[in-house]
Specification:
Length: about 180
C-alpha cells in the first residue's frame, strides 16, 4: 500500500498507541538563562534545583515515545571510558521538536509520584520526512547519563505537588 504523508502520521500514531511508553521530555531553552548561570564559565550550577544544572530555563512534559530498544527487548551498549551505558533509539511524534542536549527520563508514574528509572541526553535527532517534505516523526538517539539520576530524582521529589500533578496529567510545565 502506498503511504501518503497523512497515512504515515496515522501509522505512527497507531504504533505510538500500541507500543508507546510514557517518558519525561525535558527541553532546554537556551535563550533563557537560569539565575544560577555562571557568565564566566558559561555553565549552570550542577546542584541547581530550578534548571537541573543545565543553566537554562527548562520545560518538562510527559510524552509517549516508541522505544526501539524495548521493542527489540535488548539494550545496545557502547563503551564510554570504563563504564557501559545503554544507547537508546526513540521515536517522537511530529508535534515535538527534540534537540541535541535535551534530556529524556525513562520514568514510572503513579497518581502523585514520578520515579525516574534512567536519565538520558539526546545525542542525535533526525526529522523523518514524508514525500511532501513534511516531518512525519523524529528518530532520536540518546545516551544514558547515570550520574544525573540522583539529582533528577531529587528535583522531582522537590517539585510542588501542583506541578507534579500537571506533568502527570500530561501538561507542559516550565521551570
Ligand atoms: Zn539553575
Amino acid at each position: 500500500m502506498f503511504l501518503t504523508p497523512f497515512n504515515l502520521r496515522n501509522e505512527f500514531r497507531n504504533l505510538q498507541h500500541d507500543f508507546g511508553e510514557d517518558i519525561l521530555y525535558i527541553k532546554i531553552n537556551d535563550s533563557i538563562k537560569c539565575s544560577c548561570f555562571n557568565e564566566f564559565y558559561k555553565v549552570g550550577d550542577p546542584d541547581c534545583l530550578k534548571c537541573l544544572g543545565t543553566g537554562f530555563n527548562i520545560t518538562i512534559e510527559k510524552t509517549k515515545v516508541i522505544n526501539y530498544n524495548s521493542m527489540k527487548n535488548t539494550v545496545q551498549h557502547s563503551k564510554v571510558g570504563e563504564i557501559y551505558s545503554p544507547i537508546y533509539t526513540l521515536y517522537f511524534d511530529h508535534t515535538k521538536n527534540p534537540e541535541i542536549k535535551d534530556r529524556i527520563c525513562l520514568s514510572e508514574f503513579s497518581e502523585n509520584q514520578i520515579n525516574i528509572k534512567a536519565v538520558c541526553e539526546i545525542t542525535g535527532t533526525n526529522a523523518e520526512k514524508g514525500s511532501l517534505g513534511r516531518n512525519e516523526f523524529y528518530t532520536v538517539q540518546a545516551k544514558t547519563r547515570p550520574e544525573l539520576l540522583t539529582q533528577t530524582q531529587n528535583f522531582f521529589n522537590n517539585l510542588s505537588s501542583d506541578n507534579k500533578e500537571l506533568i502527570i496529567k500530561g501538561n507542559e510545565v516550565s521551570c
